[in-house]
Amino acid sequence: MLWLQGSVEEDPFTLLQASHAAAKQSQVKTEEQIAAEQAWYGSEKVWLVHKDGFSLATVVKTEAGSLPEGKLKIKLEHDGTVLDVDEDDVEKANPPSYDRSEDLASLLYLNESSVMHCLRQRYGGNLIHSYAGPNIVVINPLSTPSMYSEKVMHMFKGCRREDAAPHIYSVAQSAYRNLLTTRQDQSVVLLGKSGSGKTTNCQHLVQYLVSIAGSTGKIFSAEKWQAVYTILEAFGNSSTAMNTNASRFSHVVSLDFDQAGQVASASIQTMLLEKLRVSRRPETESTFNVFYYMMAGADSSLRTELHLNHIAENSAFGILPQSKPEDKQRALQQFTKLQAAMKVLGISGEEQKALWLILGAIYHLGAAGATKDGDEAGRRQFARHEWAQKAAYLLGCTLEELSSSIFKHQAKGLQHSTSFRGGPDEAGQGESSGSKVTALECLEAMASGLYSELFTLVISLINRALKSSQNSLCSLLIVDTPGFQNPRLAQQQRGATFEELCHNYTQERLQTLFHQRTFVQELERYKEENIELALDDIESSTSLSVAAIDQASTQALVRTLARTDEARGLLWLMEEEAVQPGGSEETMLERLFSYYGSAQGENKGTGLLLRGEKPHLFLLGHSHGTDWVEYNTRGWLSHAKHNPAAQNAATLLQDSQKKNISGLFMGRASGATVLSGSIAGLEGSSQLALRRATSMRKTFTTGMAAVKKKSLCIQVKLQVDALIDMVRRSKVHFVHCLLPKAEAVGGGDVRVTHGESPDSGLMTLDVGLLRAQLRGSKLLDALRIYRQGYPDHMVFSEFRRRFDVLAPHLTKKHGRHYLVTDEKRAVEELLESLELEKSTYHMGLSRVFFRAGTLSRLEEQRDVQTRRNISLFQAACRGYLSRQAFKKRKIQDLAIRCIQKNIKKNRGVKDWPWWKLFTTVRPLIEVQLTEEQIRGKDEEIQQLKQKLEKVEKERNELRLNSDRLESRITELSSELADERNTGESASQLLETETSERLRLEKDMKDLQTKFDSMKKQMESMEMEVMEARLIRASELNGEMEDDDTGGEWRLKYERAIREIEFTKKRLQQEFDDKLEVEQQNKRQLERRISDLQADYEESQRNIQQLKKKTQRLTAELQDTKLHLEGQQSRNHDLEKKQRKFDSELSAAQEEVQREKSLREKLAREKDMLTGETFSLRQQLEDKDLEVCAVNLKVDQLEAELLDLNSQESKDEASLAKVRKQLRDMEAKLKDQEEELDEQAGTIQMLEQAKLRLEMEMERLRQTHSKEIESKDDEVEEIRQSCNKKLKQMEVQLEEEYDEKQKVLKEKRELESKLLSAQDKVRGGDIETEKRLRKDLKRTKALLADAQIMLDHIKNNAPSKREIAQLKNQLEESEFTCAAAVKARKSMEVEIEDLHVQMEDISKTKQALEEQLSRLQREKNDLQSRMEEDQEDLNELMKKHKAAVAQSAQNLAQITDLQAQLEEALKGKQEIQEKMQALQSQLEFQEQSMVEKSLVSRQEAKNRELETKLEFEKTQVKRLESLVARLKENLEKLTEERDQRSSSENREKEQNKRLQRQIRDIKEEMGELAKKEAEASRKKHELEMDIESLEAANQSLQADLKLAFKRIGDLQAAIEDEMESDDNEDLINSLQDMVTKYQKRKNRTQGDSETDSEVEDRVDGVKSWLSKSKGSTKNLSDDGSLKSSSPPSRRRYCFDRSDEEEEEEEKEEGRAAEGSYYSRHRYSSHMKDDEVEDRLHESTSQSSPPASTL
């Protein structure tokens, strides 16, 4: 934990930068990291999921069959325990490099344990924010971290989301950036439990947007918004069991932005205020904070004015001052802060006083209390009138007015409701007291109404301070609602209240919006664009729990009190039960369970609505069943009933005698700031504010809302509908706020101050609670669809226009004004030019879709290209401006010269008299004209001013009129829209009511006629029965009296009774037997049903397990696919970089070659200039000598002249002659001096040119060296990275390459052995002959060359040419050798590249083969499944046909029975007719005293017919039920058949898709095979090229060796025949050749190794040259050639062994055809005889060489 504490104490700015840099650096992995990851993958780490969380473990490999199916053996990391666990309890773990990943979507394996581990690691490092795809997750730190400073705020300014670390400021910056780029409304929705930090994050969002965006004139400052939230926290927050400072209302912050992106105006809309908290609330919870602030912080004068000097001992509302001193001190500070905040928002002292008066009145009303059961007269009144008098005084009314507003004019018959604090006993007492509303309820309604009006007024005052009249373009909404409330989470045993249900319902609706935006809209978009995406494991939304609350009936517009069987939500049931005469909470719950209850009872998995332990409790599963909340419905129906006291509160405030109160509420009553008493804060004059208000009004005035908007329960649904409708119109950004642990929220205040460091225990997480929140928010499913799908998309035209800058060659190709006819084709061409991986995008029908991160990379490339283009544009603009400035300077220079010229002219004529006269008279002439013009202009100016003032007044009046008319038009349009909507709803209601009334009237008439006929029939039948009874009684009495046979009748009667009893017993016995049999059957059926039920549950469990396993495997497969796609895209990027590197390398090589050629050219030019400079210096010295000689001559002539002058006797003729000579000599001297100056200038120019060339060469050398160093560094870095990557690949092919090399080596050895054997066989006698012939040829060639050399030396010119030719041959051979070495190296590099390509191709081929085999297996599985489905379908078809046949038979039976029924009905009618006839006959017979036995027989017949009729009716009913059951079976069979057919179609489509994939893979394999063959062919060609180059290199080496041998052989002959001048030239040329060879050797020293023999030859030439210098010196001194080289040195080139000569001849024979020197040697085509003659001549002329030979 020490590192956790250290991380917490770090600077948040540094912490965020370090974490973001580490996340970016993790993308570029080192070799050690790669090795660690490979070791991690090899060990197969997993997470073991258990009830306490999850633990890291390692899978232990076991033998097949050693464990049961579905089991794994793992070893825990923390203690080494080995366990056998189920596969379902294990999830794959990510490498340690992903422990603190910034984006949860970037995890390699996406599962619950990995996500929670990442969140826990980041939370432990004080990194509470994490990206979750497009959303963000924030874990409440339960402290006040310092990561929201201004320094951190500026860290995110202007950043893109991809370049910023996860933070709440990043969400704000992303929304603000989208608002500026798309000009579309944005919204930020915060989701989470109560206490998870939603309101705090909302404040940070507003603070960032206001600080970064700014506002015009800085009217919206951070201080003002801090004041706003201070007031909202005081009036809208309170302490609950879940949070010490919980928001008890929902609000939306609307920020309107102008064209420049600044905040133009703002407003706040509030809804769902928990106003009943003022009067009643759950235990251990407090009222709103402002009451405690006021009682603790009011000064003495305010206390006296509010009558708070004496505090009541108890209060009906429970508002009492705080008892702890630290709480009082904190409340005092908060009150001072509240007053300062009101002052910042411009709330005056009188307005503040009005607020305190209303709050004080509410407090005094609670202290006054109310009588429980009324007084003796049954009146409702205050319990303590002195406190009520204080409340009336503060409200500005009398006590009677206050009492009548609260207790008078109450509706009768309202059901009593218990308060939050009331228990079962109090509830029972209240119910027994009567059905009237109690006095306490009236008082509570007045207090809640007053506080609701007060809160609405506070919101109006806040919006007054925030509104502005500036024009706005679009808006950004921030939605903050109270979080999920669950008292059981805070260890409270009470049930949740109705207000908590409303807050939970709001969160459920926002979760539904998140599900719709994340899943439904994305899948629908994919379906519309024909994009196939397999996402079968995505569950449904929270619509079931939402429907249980707000589902409306189709008859919602009909005013009816009848209960119907149509399902409806809890809010509708509350409204219906509240107006029903016998409605109660129990009836409401029964109806709710009948609509939404689960059939299995207490099983939470089957439904989201369950019964509680007590009758008035029920459980509702929120967040997809992960958060079960128990609600207590006692007193809920009171929320649906209107209380006039709450409505009288507004009237009481408007009619107050205090001007500050009445003025505020009368002004607010004139405007529509509250919508149906629900939504407050609809003020605002801007266009966007009016649009929002109109949208909300439309929600409350259309359809069902127009009728139900007065209903208190339905208002909850309408408010949430308005909120969702306002958010749905914008681009939504979701922020998921998570609660770290449950025990922290219900305890004391764990928040710390800004400077303190929180306890390390606060940085821990409750894994179970975190898992429930993740499952409830469906974050994993959202991440999965984000990873697998294409979250970024753009329309074709928009994408082309936006990213066309990345492909300038397409713009040049088509032209700038090219009209695109096919956008899709243009986008495809653009994507091809961008070289994107095909798996990263998908072309739809109207737009292009991208994988996550692809569009951001394109945006980054676009930004880079745009910056480059802007830089070029700026450079062009600056160049243009500079040229324009230069032109302006030229014009200014010309103007200055003109002005100077005019000034000079003026100075020349200013003293001229006529000019003075002109300048004096000219102004006097124009004075009169100028004055008249000035007067005319003044008059025109005055007229224009008057016109301007008149026009200005008219414009102001028109502006005022237009503003007034526009406001009136907006009001009328809103009223007109409301009236139109109300009229439409009323017309719909009228039509439905009319149709319903007509239908009911018709039904009533039919029922009335039936009732009348039945009544008549019943009366007639009763009369007949009575008459029959009377007749029978009279007959029996008469017979018993008159006749003596009464005993016989009595006996018959008794016998009949006994028979009846016997029959009854027999029938009872039969009934008992049948009953017993039926009971046995029933028990058997029950047992069978229980068995089937158990089998069904077992199968359901198996199905769930298989489904979970399938989902897990599918997720792992998708993760693997995504990893594979990532690797493919990475390989694609590496290939692009490799191609780019190759192109840069080739360009660099070309540049190097070009620089090299330029350097050589400069060197040649330098040599030429050096030579010219040397010659010019020689000429200059010659000229200097001539000048000296001329000066000497001049001196002599001057001396002679002096002598001549001294001689007076000299004649003038000779003097003139001497003078003429002197002039000639001076002219000649001048000419020579001028020529000397010209030569000196030329020399200076040449020296300057030389210096300039040297400087240029030095600069080029430096730049070239720098470029080469940078290129070398880049090449070295890339080579190192490539080598590191290639090392792993080369290891795999190393063995194959070694085997291949071994085979080639063996082959070469065999070939060499074969050649050696052949040489040995062919050798023998032939070798001596060859050696002799070679010696002869060599001797002849050497002698011929020596003779030629001697001839050249004698003729002087040919020797130089021969040496130049030799030198050129030597240079060409060295250059060819160097080129061959370089070509060999390049070929080796290309071979290595080909090896790498071959390895990549083999790996890709292997992967594709594996993928093909896997797809083949999947295809086989699908085919088997299709066959099984086909068999099932065939069986179903058989069953369906049998059922159809059976249904046809049943239908035939039904038709027969219907015919029988018709016949029976006809018989019945006939029988009734007969009965009527018999009755008439009976009457006649009774009148005619006929026998009564006939009447009894007729009655028996009638009874028999009636029994038959009843039997027929039962038979008909039974048949009808049978028909209905058969129809249901038929419908089920048809549904099953449709399902099977649809599944079969899906399987077929999947099979087709797999076949297409297999075909594509086969094509790819074919292409890879082609590439492999092409690569092998290229490799073979390169190997051939290398062999040829090696042969050429060897031949060149042989030529070089032979050339140096020739040079050595010719040294001796050259020494003897060389003359002085020729010797110097030859020595100089040989020295140049040797120095050039030495330079070239130094340059190529790192590339190739020079042969030792060649080095020996060069050393010999050097030694010979050193010795020849001495010989030339001796030659120049003595005039004869003195050779100083010993004979042994001259014989060096000829004292060689025969083996060396044979090897040289072999190399010479192999390279004879390509050698330039050999061609030159044999170009003379001399015959052997001539060679021998020359040899004899050379031996006779020079004895030392001949003796040497």
Binned, the helix content reads 55-70%
Radius of gyration: 56 Å
- Strands of the biggest beta sheet: in what spatial order? 6-7-19-8-13-11-12
Largest sheet: 7 strands, mixed
Low-confidence stretches: 1-9, 410-435, 557-562, 599-605, 744-762, 1646-1650, 1671-1701, 1704-1749
Number of helices: 44
Write the layout of secondary structure elements.
Blueprint: H1 2-9, H2 12-25, H3 31-43, E1 45-50, E2 53-59, E3 71-76, E4 82-86, E5 90-92, H4 112-124, E6 129-132, E7 135-139, H5 150-155, H6 168-182, E8 186-192, H7 198-213, H8 222-236, E9 237-238, E10 246-247, E11 250-257, E12 263-271, H9 289-297, H10 300-306, H11 325-344, H12 349-368, H13 385-395, H14 399-407, H15 424-432, H16 439-466, E13 474-480, H17 498-528, H18 543-550, H19 570-579, H20 585-596, E14 609-611, E15 617-622, E16 627-632, H21 644-654, H22 659-670, E17 674-675, E18 679-680, H23 687-701, H24 704-708, H25 714-728, E19 731-738, H26 767-777, H27 779-788, E20 792-795, H28 796-803, H29 808-814, H30 823-834, E21 841-843, E22 847-850, H31 854-909, H32 913-1042, H33 1046-1206, H34 1212-1322, H35 1325-1355, H36 1357-1488, H37 1492-1617, H38 1620-1643, H39 1652-1678, H40 1687-1690, H41 1698-1710, H42 1716-1721, H43 1728-1741, H44 1743-1748
Parallel strand pairs: 7-19, 8-13, 8-19
Antiparallel strand pairs: 1-2, 1-5, 2-3, 3-4, 6-7, 9-10, 11-12, 11-13, 14-15, 15-16, 17-18, 20-22, 21-22
Helix pairs in contact: 6-7, 7-8, 8-11, 8-16, 9-11, 12-13, 12-16, 14-21, 16-21, 17-18, 17-25, 19-20, 23-25, 23-32, 28-30, 33-34, 34-36, 35-36, 35-37, 35-43, 36-37, 36-38, 37-39, 37-41, 38-39
